[in-house]
Structures are given as structure tokens and as C-alpha cells.
Amino acid sequence: MKKIICFTTLVLAGTTMNAQKTTWGLKAGYALSTLKNDSPEAVATTYTSDPLHTFYIGGLVQHQLGSKFGVQGELLYAPLGGSQSFEFRSDTMYSLTETQLNLETLQIPLSGQYFINDAFSVSAGVNFGFVLSAKLRYVAYESHNVPGTELSVIPDDEYDVKNQMNSLLFAPFAGVSYTLGNGLFFEARYHQGLSDLSKTEGKLTNSFLQAGVGYRFGGGQ
Q1: What region does 219 belong to: left with phi over 0, alpha with psi -120 to 50, or beta?
Q2: pLDDT for 162-201, tens place per residue?
Q3: N or C terminus: which one in the chain shows less Cβ crowding within 10 Å?
């Protein structure tokens, strides 16, 4: 009996060790980034937000914990941000301010993975982002409803606003991936921005969608 138990234990241990696998790879793709201002009413009668079309690129390390589960860590460079429009109307004044915030970020996504089969997997985790630079471009239009006054324009210009931004971004995410046997994979993720970007009054968050392609050295999952 003891010999059978020992043999079974050794077989199970060997199976578990064989099921574990660590691979590394590269990935890149398209990103759609949007800003959300939770208190635009304080500065505008009408507020709109438009997405920024951008990209991401970097590397990953994946470790399989058996045939169904795995963990993955990544290091990515990803420009983020978005455009906003603030329109104010009153009986005596009209103003429109259009802005575009461009952030250069270094991201560290950490996720858990569930392998549905040899090709499909789903994942969920947290993305920690670090702001490397922050540039704000804006143009402002202003008009007073007073006879003899004309529309005044502050021309388009770019300003460094990194000192007005919080340096750490926090965004939970969920995604899906399809992997080929040769290590080539395709992925899509959505990140929900939770942390406040701005140090000023009001909360400014950044959420983004990523869709791309990558390659794991050593084959598929």
C-alpha cells in the first residue's frame, strides 16, 4: 500500500511539474483612450469627451499553474489621454474651450488567466500605470454679448502639465486572448480607470480599450 501511495504521489507531482510552464514574449497593438471628468458642471454648461487613438508596445512573462490557470506580468509603453470640450453660455457671455491631454505612461499589468481550451483564455487583473510626461493642448473661444465686441481666440498651444497630474494610475481590467500553436496570439482588453489623474479640483479618470497581437517564445499555452 505504501509503495502504491508513493508511486501515485510521484506521478501526480511529475504531472503538475510538467503542466507548469514559463514563457516570455512581445506584444503591441491599438488603443482607444477616453477621459471622464466627474464634475464638468462646475466649469461648463455643456461637456463632451472624445477618444484618443493611440498604441501600446512591450513585453510579458507568463507562468502556467497547471492546464487551466496561469499568471502574467507585463511591462508596456502606452500613450494615453483624450480630448475634452467645455462650453459655457450665459446672458452676457459665451465661451468654448477645447483641450487634448497627451500622457506618456509606463504600465505594469498583473493578471490571472483561465484557459478555456488550448486556444482561448480569459483574464482579469490590475494595471499600475506611471505617468512619464503630460502635455495639454488647448484652444479657447470667447465672446461677450456687448455691442462692438468680437469673438476672441486664444490660439492652439501646448503646455507641460505633469506637475498638475498624479503620477500613479490604477485601472482594473478584463480581457480575452486567442493563441495559436506557434506562439502567435491575439488579445483584447478593457481597462476601467479608477484613480484621479488631476491634482486640481474635480476627478479626472482615464479608461482605455486595447486590441493587439503578440508572440510567446516557446509556443502556445
Answers
A1: left
A2: 999 999 999 999 999 999 989 999 999 999 999 999 888 7
A3: N
What's the domain count of the chain? Answer: 1
Q: For residue 3, is it within any domain?
A: no
- Coil vs helix vs strand at 144: strand
Q: Is the pLDDT of residue 208 over 70?
A: yes
Please state, in angstroms and rounded to a whole number, the distance separating the CA atoms of residues 144 and 117. Answer: 64
In a domain, 6, yes or no: no
Q: Is residue 7 part of a domain?
A: no
Question: Which residue from 101, 106, 102 is spatially nearest to 56, judged by alpha carbons?
Answer: 106
Residue pair 100/137 in contact by the 8 Å Cβ criterion: yes
